[in-house]
Amino acid sequence: MFVETLSAQPSNAARFRTVSLAVAICMIAAWICGGYWYVHFYPAEKALILKGPWPFAHNFFMETKEHLFFVTAILAKLLPIATRERPYSDAAERKLVLSIAALIAITGLAVEGAGAIIDHGVKVALLRTASKDAR
Amino acid sequence: MVKLSPATSGFALAAAISVLVNTALSCAKDAYAPLKAVMKSFAGHDWTAQSLIDLAFSVALGLIFMNTRIAERIEPARLTASLIGAVVIAALGLAVWFAF
Questions:
Q1: Which domain holds residue A81?
Q2: Closest Cβ–Cβ partner in B8, B23, B87 for A107
């Protein structure tokens, strides 16, 4: 989306509007699917993490991630509205769309990174249990 | 001065305010257990309730700003800077809150 906007022209306007709508739809899908997983399956993982050697994987990373996600989602909802303007003809409009796209990417990567640490929090908790059982 | 459309400016300002409200709500429910309990009783899980509150708040505020054309008076560059600033404050606020 960011790259599309950098090269925004009337000829690719339809494409970047479609891409911006796809971003919003994907984010809504992630909201529903991720939310379902979080509400129904995460409590068991949380219990494991908190008993394991990496409790900060929940206490800091999950707590921050689950609320930072809303920021990304709110921005993704704004994107298709902003691209209804003409970012190819006005610098201020282009900067707004570029900023929204960049913020979505940055907060999205932060959420993804936190997710990797949370997964590892579960893994190290399970490894510790398994190594105790092996002894 | 180039103006953004009422919809873009209204929803951009609404997004800037909504991300800050989201951070405030996250900290408030973490600090005050009865609020978390009320949110849980409302939607089965506090995270689900916060999802619905964030969504409803940002859409309602966007529609209000769009119809009243309040945000249209703000210079586009200032609106963009406000949105970036709000996201940075919201993200750092969450990180600092849950770090301590």
A1: 2-134
A2: B87
